[in-house]
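Bench notes, afternoon.
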Amino acid sequence: MSNASVLIVSDDTDFARTVAARWQAQRRVPEITLTNSDVWQAASAHSYNLVIVGPVQKGKISAILYALSANASTAVVCVSSDAREASTLSIEYPYVLVMPREDGWIGTLILVAGEALRRTEAVARAQRAERMAIESQRDATLGRYMLEMRPSLNNALTSVLGNADLLMLDPGQLSLEGRHQIKAIHEMALRLNEITQRFSSLAAEMRAGEKELNSDALDALQRT
C-alpha cells in the first residue's frame, strides 16, 4: 500500500486537510493529491487507486460520481454532509461507497479507504497474474508450433546447405560476387541449423526436467 495513490476531490479545504492529516498518522501513508471540483479531471483521476469525494459545490456531486463510475478499477468513496443525499447517491451509484459525515466519520473513512486500497491492490495483482498467464500460454503455443515445424525446417535447411555445397564445389561457374553470395547463404544456413539444434536440446532438457519433477512428486506422494 506504500505505493498507492489517493486523490481527494473537495471544495471544503478543512475536509481535505483533515483527511490528509489523519492519514499521515497511519503506519502506511499513500501518495495523496488534493484538488477541487473546478480543476479536477476524470481522465487523470483514473490513474489513482482511490478517489475520495468530499463536500463540493451544489449540483456537482452527481457529475463527479458519474464520471468516476466509468472506471471500475478505481475505488471511489464519497463522504456526504447530508444523510438523505448519502442514501440517494448510494442507490444511484451502487459501485461508489457513500458514507454520511457524522460523528466519528474520519476514523471510519480511514478504515474504509485502507480496505479499499488493499482490495484494489489485490485486483491489480490478479490482473497482472492473468496477463502473465496469457503471455505464458501464448509462448507455449509458439513453442509447440516450433517443435511441430522443426522437421520441416531441418529438411529445408538441409536442402539449402546441400545446394550451396554443390555450387561451391564448382566455383568456376560463378562470378566472384556470386561465390560470395553462395558462401553467405551457406554460413547463414549453418547458423540457422545451430539454432534449431540448440532449440532441440532445450526441448529435451525441459522434458527431462518435467519427468524428474513428476518422479519426485510421485516419490513424495508414496512416502506420504
